[in-house]
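Re: magnesium ion structure - here you go.
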Amino acid sequence: MKGHSIADLFASGILLQEVQVKGWVRTFRSNRFLALNDGSTLKNIQCVVDFENTDENVLKKITTGASVSVIGTLVESQGKGQSVEIQASAIEILGESNPEEYPIQPKKHSMEFLRENAHLRIRTNTFSAVMRVRSTLAFAVHKYFQENGFNYVHTPIITGSDAEGAGEMFRVTTFETNKAPLNESGEVDYTQDFFGKETNLTVSGQLEGEAYAMALGKIYTFGPTFRAENSNTTRHLAEFWMIEPEVAFCDLDGNMDLAEDFIKYVLKYILENCEEDIAFLNDRFIKEEKTKPQAQRSELSLLEKLQFVVNNNFKRVSYTEAIDILRNSKPNKKKKFQYPINEWGADLQSEHERYLVEKHFKCPVILFDYPASIKAFYMRLNDDEKTVRAMDVLFPGIGEIVGGSQREERLDVLREKVKAMGIDEKELWWYLDLRKFGTAVHSGFGLGFERLVQFATGMGNIRDVIPFPRTPQNAEF
Ligand code: 4AD
Ligand code: MG
């Protein structure tokens, strides 16, 4: 006899044999019915305890949260709603719990409370389902790229560059606070720091990814990225995971095709491989929507939203068309937008993105050809010299899920751009080299993994789709 996972027991049909399972007690009723979960599946296995022949001391310790080992015979269940159960013959308490202090009681807890107990919230159905889907999605990401000839590149986490030029970086230094050496002009002298220069945690692996695409052809990164933006929203984290493919000899159209194909593939993969968890999350989503005012409710269930994205084309719309739509929209005319849209060139806020996706087009939208002035320095300038070959993929309920572009491959144009944006050319010497030696049309994008997990699981807050969220004023655990 060997230990079994609960998922195996439900799948195997090895009836009438002796089995052993180890897990955590969810509930224990009438000194007889023990619901055990080991994280391998959403389902608990019911263990029927022979209380007359079980030590009273052991019975007392079968409390919610305790870890136990159960040996017994797997039989068809008498109870409704479950296929098999264990007639327990031996129960061992592996780790006691304290029912008065254990925070995860068998009742509904608020999401805020669970966030404060992020080390234990994973023992609830909701969080275990979300985290299993997250894991499967991560696998699907690798599967897609590996099957399509992309090389996985590990770009550095500590860098000297600000890829997005937005200055939202966490500094990396070994200087002690208040004891940093100063140079002649009274500024911190980073030449004496660990790396001999200013360094930070990466905001994106793109720049280094481009170097690799210009040799390996097709690459992707999938790693942690860091942004010190003080945004306390349901869509922002200070530490999040980003997936960044980069492809040589690929233009913006090819980039849009890749983003759409990739997203559809990974969502289809979880529909096919996480059926039980998605069904649970779908029920949860429907219940949550019912608590919202009618006007804010999603018209589709989670399952319908996922199927819709997998089965329909994303709508491709230029920034200029989008501005026209927004300018003439009801909420704009009735001054309902917090940021009214008056003229071409305005940066789009999430209220605008969501209007386009949820009210106007009612499907995922790819916006492209944005004004150069609101986008990063590396995007390829169009012939109109006003717009760049940028693209953002916008999703219902999420807003921007992907940001990407065709890259500026012309050395002289890129140099001009770098200068105009006040960036020191010397810091980008190696990036400019890529345009000097064998430059080529190339494109890529970044997809925020947690936003994808949010969409896939229907969770309203990004803090609930990453194990231990980092946000302003919060780095517990
Ligand atoms: O649009 P962004 O800033 O693009 C880049 O970083 C490019 N260098 C990517 C590339 O072309 N290789 O970020 C890409 C995506 C966003 O669309 C969003 O999904 C996610 O990263 N993202 C965040 N997710 C969670 N918390 C944050 N603070 C995020 N900032 C961006
Ligand atoms: Mg962006």
